[in-house]
Design a protein that fits this description.
By secondary structure, the protein is mainly α. It has 18 helices and 6 strands. The chain has a 3-stranded antiparallel sheet. Helix 10 packs antiparallel against helix 11. The longest helix is centred in the middle third of the chain and has 27 residues. The relative contact order is 0.12. It binds acetyl coenzyme *A (ACO).
């Protein structure tokens, strides 16, 4: 394989280094192109741009492969807890027993939020979207740890920030939910594991004991693992972009949460369920909705379908679809929405519009049906995604700031506006 690519420009040949990844991915390094030729590359939406090298997650969209630190998602999702998976992503290897124990202890130890922060929740309107609350609260946490804001932290400080964030994000999420339903906040219980503790804070009420269903714990664990990282997606790139300015981790993650909220990204899981509910309310016939999705004059899209990188199938969606059947069956839930989703998927996958464009169900298509069966309200779906994605964002931020070659992210542009416009004083403007 050639080690350089040749580019003909204005009668000159420019040689550009070729970079090969460990899974054989190929790239042309254009970082010095402008300096040597005056040209930049133009790639709106980063359709074809590698923004970094990374050793965290590999995905092959054509073959439907996803691996965290080299381990396939199919294997991981079946064998580890979300906390083990988080450790793997952040520290690069599966923890041994001592490492896992220490990591878990740290997460337990840091599970409280400052009592003053409870006042913030009370000042939001009860109808506030929990993603608005979560992003603000994650950034607000930084106010309580001024010692953790400096860009160049010691390993110990960095690990302290990481465990605090992983632990507290689920407290913030559960408190946001409690606020929205007007229930008192429920404090974490340290004898519970990560997912159990989250469910306890979400669903326990002082009046009666909370019976935790192991099926729910297993399902949430699986969903969090499947969402834990996805290389350079929109929210992760946002975290890297903000972090590249050496903004602190709280601020970087808060920005990532905001990016995730968008309906084309993590916000799609809420939109999928609302779409399925609308189809159900309309009598269950999905043809009308498929026609709308195909109509170029209609902004409607089939939510939970399509992906920038998966052009065959999304391996996460495959696992979630199977889990969806299992969970609903074990919980004894008969949800007509599941049948609508399956029918819609089957019909879309046979439709030339979706075949030609390689549009398949993505991770968000079936996840909402599981969340709904577990009693998690629709506007909390993207919050669940954010809890899951947190270790991935942290791992990517950590990898970036520990890279001695790290540079502030600063794309170029091609200016297309007016040139040399003469200034007109206000009294002479028409
Ligand atoms: N419904 C109908 N048509 C679609 C859909 C869809 N869900 N997704 C893509 N298309 C069409 C586009 O209109 C376009 O058609 P054209 O070539 O005739 O113009 C073609 O397929 C290519 O789609 P793009 O939007 O150009 O693809 P892109 O890679 O930019 O977008 C995205 C990917 C944003 C995920 C898109 O498929 C979409 O909007 N899906 C619905 C939202 C969704 O489910 N998002 C979650 C993604 S997973 C995640 O982020 C966790």
């Amino acid at each position: 394989m050639a080690t350089t690519a040749k580019l003909e420009l204005d009668g000159k040949t420019v040689e550009l280094p070729i970079v090969i990844g460990s899974e054989g991915e190929k790239a042309i390094d254009i970082s010095k192109l402008r300096a040597s030729t005056g040209f930049v590359t133009l790639d709106s939406g980063y359709m074809n741009t590698g923004a970094c090298t990374s050793a965290i997650t590999f995905l092959d969209g054509e073959k439907g492969i996803l691996k965290y630190r080299g381990i396939s998602i199919e294997e991981l999702s079946d064998k580890v807890s979300f906390i083990e998976c988080s450790y793997l992503l952040i520290y690069g290897h599966l923890p041994n027993q001592t490492e896992l124990k220490n990591f878990r202890e740290g997460i337990k130890y840091h599970s409280l939020i400052h009592e003053d922060m409870k006042n913030f929740f009370n000042t939001y309107p009860s109808h506030a979207h929990p993603m608005a609350i979560l992003s603000s609260m994650v950034c607000s946490l930084s106010a309580y740890y001024p010692e953790l804001l400096k860009p160049d932290q010691t390993e110990e400080e960095k690990n302290g920030t990481i465990t605090r964030l992983i632990s507290k994000v689920r407290v913030l999420a559960a408190f946001a939910y409690k606020r929205s339903v007007g229930h008192p906040f429920v404090y974490p219980k340290n004898e519970l594991d990560y997912v159990q503790n989250f469910l306890h804070m979400m669903f326990a009420v002082p009046a009666e004991p909370y019976q935790m269903d192991p099926v729910a714990v297993k399902a949430i664990n699986l969903l969090l693992i499947l969402h834990a990282d996805h290389e350079q997606n929109c929210s992760t790139s946002t975290v890297r972009m903000v972090g590249s300015a050496k903004a602190n981790l709280f601020a970087s993650l808060s920005a990532g949460i905001c990016a995730l909220w968008g309906p084309l990204h993590g916000g799609a899981n809420q939109e999928v369920l609302e779409m399925l509910e609308a189809i159900h309310a309309d009598g269950g016939g999905y043809k009308k909705f498929l026609d709308k999705a195909k109509d170029k004059n209609d902004p409607f899209k089939l939510m939970g379908f399509g992906h920038r990188v998966y052009k065959n199938f999304d391996p996460r969606a495959k696992i979630i679809k199977k889990a969806c059947d299992d969970v609903l069956q074990k919980l004894g839930v008969n949800d007509p929405i599941l049948e609508i989703a399956k029918g819609l998927e089957e019909t879309a996958l046979k439709d030339p519009y979706f075949i030609e464009r390689k549009l398949y169900p993505n991770v968000d298509f079936y996840s909402g049906i599981i969340y709904r069966a577990l009693g998690i309200p629709t506007n909390m779906f993207t919050v669940m995604f954010a809890i899951g994605r947190l270790p991935g964002w942290i791992a990517q931020w950590k990898e970036m700031i520990e890279d001695p070659q790290m540079k502030i992210c600063r794309p170029r542009q091609i200016y297309t506006g007016q040139t040399n416009v003469k200034f007109v004083p206000i009294e002479k403007r028409s």
